[in-house]
Amino acid sequence: MEGVLPGQHAPRAGKPVVQFENEDEVLGELRLDPSISQHQISSNLGIPRSTVQRVINRNKYHAYHVQRVQALLPGDYEPILRFCREMLRYHREDPQFLNKVLRTDELTFRRTGVFNIHNLHFYSIVNPLIIRNDRFQHRLVLTCELV
């Protein structure tokens, strides 16, 4: 081979070719479990994650996030009303009260630990509009502190 040292291969141009059997295997994994991660597919099939990602993109799959919904329980109304009445009382006593409240992002603690909804996804070609009911509604929510 001209221009190549002995024992070396000629340089390849462009992206590596994704084998069709890899493509069928990756798509098969997605059909079996649409919530599987690219890392898990890569591990299951023994192929690079970049190959998995390329197959997913070429076949127009998208990682849709699950929408979390919650329902109010009958016992929720009284604490909500109590909180609102307290806030109104504080405001009547000091009209600047709400300006002294530091508003922060909501942090949720559950019996099962901290849950990150951003890690929950579902691969599909069209948006499946998946809704996840929050099964652990009894939790401590920290939303603000007084300054």
Automatic annotation (TrEMBL):
Protein name: (apollo) hypothetical protein
Pfam families: HTH_24
